[in-house]
Amino acid sequence: MTHSTPPSFRSPIDVFGDWALQGKDKGMETGHARAVANMLDFAIPRVQSPESFSFLDAGCGNGWVVRNVREMAGCRMAMGVDGAEAMIEKAQSLDPEHSDSYQCADLMTWTPEQPLDLVHSMEVFYYVEDPASLIKHAFEQWIAPGGRLILGVDFYRENTVSHDWQEQCGVDTMTLLSQGEWMNAMDQAGFQECEHWRVDQHMKPDWEGTLVLTGVVPSPK
Fold this sequence. Notes:
alpha/beta, Rossmann fold, globular
């Protein structure tokens, strides 16, 4: 479900653009580091060709995940896409030698020049009206056959302490799905070998952890 919001609430792109200008992007990096490390530790050894893989961070913020993955053995290309222009500008300023690795675009319509082996996204896919459509778009347009999508979300129905975040952040679009609805969206998109788990569950009062979801685009038979 998508919460109804007052007219004064702003789009996620506008809110997170302001966060970049205010330096709050560093706190996002720190807060998500443990979950992202868990996700990458799972996904990177399972890419089809660990000795040569391409990587996308969808909703890359200041580009910290892109920079980290680029330094890993086997990564031949790492890029990031974000809808907030200020976030992309921050990423480019922090990584000037690879400034063309970052693109400002609407994830719902963006497509890469070539499909990628591993697509990662942390705390992004619920900032649209229909996350299932974005998952389907990723399946159809972003990922090479045999490639993997891995998502992390903290705003989900079972994690009740997250339910007031929309009001706290003043964001006009946050779609609250259950764990089962997220998994169903992965299945319906066509992903195979789907798995889910939670990271850092109960590390603080009533915290259900980061929900991680992953699946593979099937290779042609």
